[in-house]
Amino acid sequence: MSRPGLLVLCVLVALPVFLPGAVMASDRIVVQLDIDGPIGPATSDYVHRGLERARKLNAVLIVLRMDTPGGLDLAMRRIIRDILASPVPVVGFVAPSGARAASAGTYILYACNIAVMAPATNLGAATPIEIGTLPGSGGGKAPKAGSSGKSSAPESHESTETRKTVNDAAAYIRSLAQLRGRNAVWAVKAVRQAVSLPAEEALNLRVIDLVARNVPDLLAKINGRAVSVPGGSITLDTVGAHVVRFQPDWRNRLLSVITDPNMAYILMLLGIYGLFFEMWHPGLVFPGVIGAISLLLALFAFQVLPVSFAGLGLILLGIGMMVAEVFLPSFGVLGLGGISAFVVGSVMLLDAASPGFGPSWWLVGGVALLSAAFFMTVVTLALKARRRPIVSGREQMIGAVGEALATFKTDGRVRVHSEEWQARTHQPLASGQKVRVVGMEGLVLLVEPFDGGVT
């Protein structure tokens, strides 16, 4: 072989050694996914795509690192279904120290093949909260007992619905615990009593499988463990495996922005205001286009978010009442009612009980004040413009005062608004006499003598 050819061969052989992060086809790969913050539609999409990538890379393991206060039930169940169907074993890892896997995070941790926590972390508080249940409404509370020990009043519909939701969640997490061979009794307590556990106690109670400081420590401790996947049993070989972190792409980031509750709220208002402007001033186009796009994006976000249609109706009612305040003499009653309906609807619009999916109070208050000021100012100016005296056309000529240019009994000429007009009268007029226009027949003015009174 020639010297240049030998040099090229040496470079090709040594290239993977000198490239940071380079992975040989024969290397064992561990894919790491990170869940930070509330669990929503964007999170479930990110995990789904991450599991698919791990399968295509023939990864030996997936590490699902979590630090979450919980999130939406629908997104959580989608993630769990993907984990249970994954041919690649999934390790749930609550990390770093100080992190938590509360509410929905607890269910996901139970669904993983191996559950691991870092020191100084916690999990639990997995009680589901019914969408639309307001504090103090009695939802989920048992009726008070009378002296006979029986209920003194029939159970409310809210109490029944809440109990059904809790029972369903308890059965769900118990089935996950039984599937993975973990403590099912504590799992049910986490749902029914909202209890929590730190890492060491969770290990002692068989809620988790082990405690690890970081991902390398985790990989060293689980090496050689046998886990069950849909295709059968797998013995993990993780020593020296290369960890590849799967980051959210632009599609996932866009979905995350759109489905942010505050952003969805802003998009909805932009849509309403844009369409309002377009209907108020037809032909502007730009407000209508922006409004239509914003409203469609908001409706897409509301499709995957816990939205209360009663809250949406109150927002629309509040906007309508603020507009009506300008046209109807209600002495502020409609305006105050509209602001109140707008604020209450904004609070009810999204489920404030779901962690990270409640509206920002600053945003709601600021938008309410701006909306009230906007409608009061814009509609008031429009109403004043409508009531302003007409300065052109037929209507402007009626009642106008001028003078006769010559003496005439029926037909002659008059000057009105510095313009000469053909005129007709039923009373004789003298040259220079003041006249008032009382009508028009084509381009002929009908006039009468003007005595100087109020026009």
Describe the structure.
This protein is of the alpha/beta class and 455 residues long. The protein has three domains: 27-132 and 166-251, 2-enoyl-CoA Hydratase, Chain A, domain 1 (Alpha-Beta Complex); 257-387, no CATH class; 394-449, Nucleic acid-binding proteins (OB fold (Dihydrolipoamide Acetyltransferase, E2P), Beta Barrel). Helix content is 47%, strand content 17%. Strand 13 (411-416) and strand 14 form a beta hairpin. Helix 3 (73-85) packs parallel to helix 4 and helix 5 runs antiparallel to helix 6.
CATH third-level topology of the largest domain: 2-enoyl-CoA Hydratase, Chain A, domain 1
Using only C-alpha atoms, the radius of gyration works out to: 37 Å
Strand order of the largest sheet: 8-5-3-2-1-11
The helix count comes to 15
Supply the CATH architecture of the largest domain: Alpha-Beta Complex
Q: Mean pLDDT, nearest integer?
A: 80
CATH superfamily of the largest domain: 2-enoyl-CoA Hydratase, Chain A, domain 1
Tell me the number of structural domains.
Answer: 3
Low-pLDDT segments: 11-26, 131-155
- Structural class comes to alpha/beta
Please render the helix and strand layout as text.
Layout: H1 3-18, E1 29-36, H2 41-56, E2 61-67, H3 73-85, E3 90-94, E4 100-102, H4 104-111, E5 114-117, E6 122-124, H5 157-180, H6 184-192, E7 196-198, H7 199-204, E8 210-211, H8 215-222, E9 226-229, E10 232-235, E11 242-245, H9 250-258, H10 261-280, H11 286-304, H12 309-327, H13 333-349, H14 361-387, H15 394-397, E12 401-404, E13 411-416, E14 419-424, E15 434-441, E16 444-449
Parallel strand pairs: 1-2, 1-11, 2-3, 3-5, 4-6, 5-8, 14-16
Antiparallel strand pairs: 6-7, 9-10, 12-13, 12-15, 13-14, 15-16
